[in-house]
From TrEMBL:
Subunit structure: Homotetramer.
GO BP, sorted A to Z: cytidine to uridine editing; mRNA processing
The protein, known as: mRNA(cytosine(6666)) deaminase
GO molecular function, one term: metal ion binding
Family from the record: Belongs to the cytidine and deoxycytidylate deaminase family.
Domain of life of the organism encoding this protein: Eukaryota
Enzyme Commission number(s): 3.5.4.36
Function noted in UniProt: Probable C to U editing enzyme whose physiological substrate is not yet known. Does not display detectable apoB mRNA editing. Has a low intrinsic cytidine deaminase activity. May play a role in the epigenetic regulation of gene expression through the process of active DNA demethylation.
Segments forming domain CMP/dCMP-type deaminase: 3-125
Amino acid sequence: DRMNPTFFKFQFKNVEYSSGRNKTFLCYQVDIQGGSGETDGLRGYLEDEHSGSHAEDAFFQQVLAYYDKSLHYTVTWYMSSSPCTACAAKLVEILQARKTMRLNIHCSRLFQWEEPEIQAGLKALVRAGCKIRMMRPVDFAYVWSTFVENEEENFTPWEDCQDNYDYYDERLCDILK
């Protein structure tokens, strides 16, 4: 199941003013190692509206509800927006409880990054072992080719994609100092 290309282009566009972009889209890849056999990874996407909860929460309810502490999980998310305060706090708890899980979050935009509680949440995530970075143009191309109904079309970055990445990357680096 792949994302509609119009949704991707609107929701993942890394603009500073995200008017109308009030849902979070989360594309995920889970690599699982260990155990008796070769374990397949998981891949797909979630969005807030259809999950009944925030996409981050829905991931742990619907995709990775079962956790085997004898296995090693590498979870990579490509998100349209960084986690809110409540989701950041829940993710910290999950990372502390699931010692064999690594979480990498690649964000298109920073959600309300000026707010002190949002900044504190991002810092707490990093302290808990989460790797957070902004999506580069190459990441948008990867998400396009992997998670979007692209009809074999190549991804064409929007005009200010690189500039917006630079802007958000600088904000995130300032927050995580």
